[in-house]
Design goal:
Oligomer: single chain
Largest sheet: 8 strands, mixed
Number of strands: 20
Strand content: 5-15%
Mean pLDDT: 91
Length: 706
Amino acid sequence: MADSPITSPTTGRVHLSQEGQIAIITLDNPPVNSSNDAVRRGILAALDKIDTQQSRAVVLMGKGPNLMAGADLRELAHEPTEPTLPQVTAALSAFPLPVIAVINGHTMGGGLELALACDSRIATPTALLGLPEVTVGVIPGAGGTQRLPRVVGLPKALEMIVSGKPITAVEAHHLGLVDELLQAAQGEARGSEREAEVVKAVVAYANRYQGGKQPLAERDVPPADAQALQAHIDKLLKRPRGLPAAPVAAEMVMKAAALSFSAAMAEERAQFLALRGSESAQALRYLFFAEREKPFVPTQPVKAAPVSRISVVGAGTMGSGIALCALKAGYSVDLLELNDQALKAGVARITQALNEGVKHQRLTQAQRDNALSRLKPTQDLPEVAGTDLVIEAIVEDLAIKRALFADLAHWVSESTLLASNTSYLNIEQIAEGIAHPERVLGLHFFSPAERMPLIEIVRCKTTSEQTLSSAVSVARQLKKKAIVVANSWGFVGNRLYAAYRRQCEFMLEEGASPEQVDAALEAYGFAMGPFKVADMSGLDIAWKMRQQSADTRHLRRYVGIPDLLCEAGRLGRKTGSGYYRYDEAMRPSADPDVAQMIDRYREEHAITPKAFSEQEIQQRAVLALINEALLLLEEGVCQRPADIDIALVNGYGFPRWRGGPLFIARQMRAVQLASELDKLAEVSGKGHLRANLQSLKSQCSEELTS
């Protein structure tokens, strides 16, 4: 097959070749064939160069694993350059020969919009297709909201575009979005041999294609019931937790049935351009890149130790959740629990979760069976000899954990990594005195471990860089968002949340109600208000921690309202009452008894309640997070400033589209932020430590505006 690169300013990003009567345009912009101006220019140049008299069809495909995995998001930070993607999709649609798109790998965003502009779409069976633009703060801007409804109908188009979730090629084929699945691509061949098989199958399809031009722009949108569609939209818009682009996306999809194609395309583009510079879009792009940076870069070249077998000690909710994560990631897993009943309960939880995965088609029966075949429940500690990594997830008791680590060090190899899942305890104290302390670290999962994406990799003073590199590798295989943090109280996440919760308790003492604080912070975008979270977690957990630090209570402002609730037996949802009263369906409602309890507390402490606005509650809570984040930077608890924002978004329900406390701080003028931190210190009272801004200026590449 002759290959003639286009001689235009494409820097080799697009190639044109000819296979008989089939012209093949190949996108070649590694690693994922993302769209940029060079690729767009290259596609147009290739179309111009095709001899329409000698060709019967055009194939658009990608070199490597993807057709196009989406736009280069860095371009969204700047003014659009021509040719724009809408110009390219218009050219594909108007080209005199039929254009066939080959959907491979992750074909997302602009990649799917390119495919939608073609006349036919074929796909490898393992491909994923989606329009995830709302997750980065924008909407599809090259016809996605208009072409997709014409091929899959309004309900499915709304679901795909408003949620941003991809679908499989198999589902796309069922919907008619994909015309044929390339069965040849399922063989054992790899690399260039596999690519050659795909090209052969594609050319065969193109040669027998008889459909001619089939522009989606000329199709009518299939009719749908208006009332059912509105209910569908309302349901979809509850899921993205206030992503600002989601309602705009829904509105634009609905315009497909209400406006002409050209008018709707113009409006889609205008909305896309308006959203791309918004603060929410900037925040989402910031997190997109931050989460894809390496969480740890060693000072010397080190190779991660191979890990194929993981031993989890403790079969409770957390331990069984961690074991489930490891099984799903392909590891062999020992689940060690001395109590026979607790071990059986842990295995039952894992089995039930895998069965649910099969029921909801997230797993096949074979995958479920394979995972269980790699699980080894045991009550004998010596059984973990030969393991690569031990993760303890037992009760939060320093003495018990110390004894366990001493026993583990006796049975496992000196190269076995020893990790604690503790939330607050000092890991160096847990592992004090054991041999080879360089292999000791923390792996702090968040509950429920199988669903929560965040993991804190805790670095002790003696932890080696190889150990940290190995932990990062494991986290990647577990599909977790990892941050590397220093061994300190609460690490990053729990310490931030403690400061946030403390400030909310201050406002409760000063005059706000639990439901008012929760409503304000949920309106801000938090997944759940702090007092609902406390009820869900159980108020007795924090109560025990407060009792352990009672001797230092006099050094800081202390709110006794949570203690009163616990003393009254109101421990949260598990007892049917906490800050709220719960019905049989666990629905919360305001409880007059709690209001009376808080009123009496204020009277006893001579506190005159003040009125709070929604904005004031939001500002104080977020400023408390900013202040604590700056203190964490000052103390060197985390390696990267973005780690703080990653932790809050992925572990604590902070609204993703707001970026995180440090992202917010960097948008503020230095004088304004300093003034706000002064006010926070004033209202917070005794024991409050006010952060300075120098840590933000020195550690962030973008300094505060002076």
